[in-house]
Amino acid sequence: MENKLMIYNTLSRKKEVFEPLHAPNVGLYVCGPTVYGDAHLGHARPAITFDVLFRYLQTLGYKVRYVRNITDVGHLEHDADAGEDKIAKKARLEQLEPMEVVQHYTLRYHKAMEALNVLPPSIEPHASGHIIEQIQLVEEILKNGYAYVSEGSVYFDVAKYDKDHNYGVLSGRNLDDVLNTTRELDGQHEKRNPADFALWKCAQPEHIMRWPSPWSDGFPGWHCECTAMGRKYLGEQFDIHGGGMDLIFPHHECEIAQGVASMGKPVVKYWMHNNMITINGQKMGKSYNNFINLSEFFSGSHPLLSQPYSPMTIRFFILQAHYRSTVDFGNEALQAAEKGLQRLMDAWNTLGSLAAGDATTVDVAGLRAKCFDAMNDDMNTAQVISHLFDASRAINQIADKKATITADDLADLKETFRLFTFDILGLKEERGSDSEREAAFGKVVDMLLEQRQAAKAVKDWATSDKIRNELAALGFEIKDGKDGATWKLNR
Ligand code: ZN
After folding, report:
1. Who surrounds ion ligand 1 at CB < 5 A?
2. What are the extents of the domains in the chain?
3. How far is the CA of 313 from the centre of ligand 1 (A)?
4. What is the dihedral of CA 69, 71, 77, 80, to 10 degrees?
């Protein structure tokens, strides 16, 4: 048991020793983004959580095939206006080809993930590129008697499935619960039972994303894509399926049912779910006006933010909590994370300049063992970070000559610190190149001038003069023009 990775399996509701089906190969599937808008904080947490898992499994010597899909067919959601496909709606509003919308937001998502130092997955399949596989899946479920055709659409027969198997194994909901919480939605009259979910939807005439199928011109139900693509790239049974807790029901519950209904046995061995993010104690949502895009975090341009937060601050902040705990974003907590991360990076830089002594008064082997134990305990990154803080204190003590370390132990300490901080937690130093720094510098001056402009607009001359004078003291020459102020730096 010792030094074995334990992960919490949502299916069994307990921690289990991780034993891959085909060691050393590991199949990992994570539900990716729906690309109809900018990546926001809600995208960052699953991406970072499973990025750390991907990194850690590789550290343990596994060969991981990590599949994270792009949902680009669009799917019907309870809050979608009149049930219109979100990507199609965006395309209609912006007069774009749907694939232009997909391309645009996929690139932006990739950029945000790169900034967060999230490694690209091994395969990133698009739902729209796997319509044939999804149609095959629906045909199998129909053939096995767990689906029916109704007015060109195909629905999963939940009651029939529940009789033979057990619907609700993942979420713990039984069929009655589901019936009681199912709202009247578009297409409800076509279903035998309100709990039934669509495997294929016949497209309305105005629906622009559509494909031919044996039943109608239409599009697959959302849950089909992950079942079809997971199977295509990871096989009929694979190790880990992950995603946010909000996907447990209905998405993952339906995936389990589709897998059993088509292939006769459960597809996934371990189900892992990260908890959600709140902002100032509130759920994130359009109606709360607290949907903060990642780019707004990086630039500090959202009204709820008192300053910009770097991608590594966001990453560090998320990892300071266990992935199954909630995380609450607020300015104070983020500022504390920013300082914590800086302390870690300072310790790393100090570590590079330490001189070795004759004896070691720091428990280097113990630190390494404790960090592995924490990761093995269901990926407790919060615990790893606290051990790294202990290590940082020890490093500062050695620098202050209050502790000593031999050359061999110093090399081990560097290796352990590097392995956990950079390779496994995926943090990185953010000092950036000269040109990056200069660009950031310029943006800050621009922001100050915008503030000065705003102060002038409300005749707050004191603030306006203060900003001008302080910039002048630093060597900035400010010129007021018709379109606002410009600046140059007199070196
Ligand atoms: Zn999915």
Report:
1. 31, 226
2. 22-274, 279-424, 434-489
3. 28
4. 150
Cα 445 to averaged position of ligand 1 atoms, centre (Å): 43
225 alpha carbon – ligand 1 mean position (Å): 7
Q: Taking the chain (491 residues) in consecutive chunks of 10 residues, what is each chunk's mean pLDDT?
A: 82 98 98 89 95 98 98 59 66 79 92 97 97 98 98 96 96 84 68 94 86 96 96 98 96 97 97 95 79 90 92 98 96 97 97 94 96 98 98 97 96 98 96 64 80 86 88 85 79 62
Report the separation in Å between the CA atom of 293 and the middle of ligand 1, taken as the mean of its atom positions: 22
CA distances from 241 to 15, 180, 230, 256 (A): 15, 28, 9, 11
Nearest CA to 114 out of 48, 31, 41 is that of: 48
Structure confidence at residue 75 (pLDDT): 57
Q: Where are the beta strands (DSSP E) in 401-491?
A: 476-481, 484-489
Give the pLDDT of residue 76. Answer: 45
CATH class of this structure's domain 22-274: alpha beta
223 CA → ligand 1 middle, Å = 6
CA of 127 to the centre of ligand 1 (A): 10
To the question of pTM greater than 0.90 for the whole model, the response is no
Instruction: Calculate how far, in angstroms, residue 117's C-alpha sits from the geometric centre of ligand 1.
Output: 22
Phi–psi pair at 469, nearest 5 degrees: -65, -40
Closest CA to 381 of 338, 324, 305, 444: 324
Burial 102-133 (b: 16+ CB within 10 A, else e): bebbbebbeebbebbbbbebeeebbbbebbeb
Q: Tell how far the Cα of 227 is from the centroid of ligand 1, in angstroms.
A: 8
Question: How buried is residue 356: exposed, middle or buried, by Cβ count under 10 Å (0-12/13-18/19+)?
Answer: middle
| CA–centroid distance, residue 70 to ligand 1 (Å) | 9
d(Cα 238, Cα 258) in Å, to the nearest integer? 15
d(CA 470, CA 55): 46
Q: Which amino acid type is present at position 258? A: Q
> How many other C-beta atoms are found inside a 10 Å radius of the C-beta of residue 285?
12
Selected from 3.40.190, 1.10.287, 1.10.730, 3.40.50, the CATH number assigned to the domain covering 279-424 reads 1.10.730
Q: Taking the mean position of all CA atoms in its chain, how far away is CA 162?
A: 32
φ/ψ of residue 239, rounded to 5: -75, -65
CA of 30 to the centre of ligand 1 (A): 7
What is the C-alpha separation between 305 and 280, in angstroms, rounded?
11
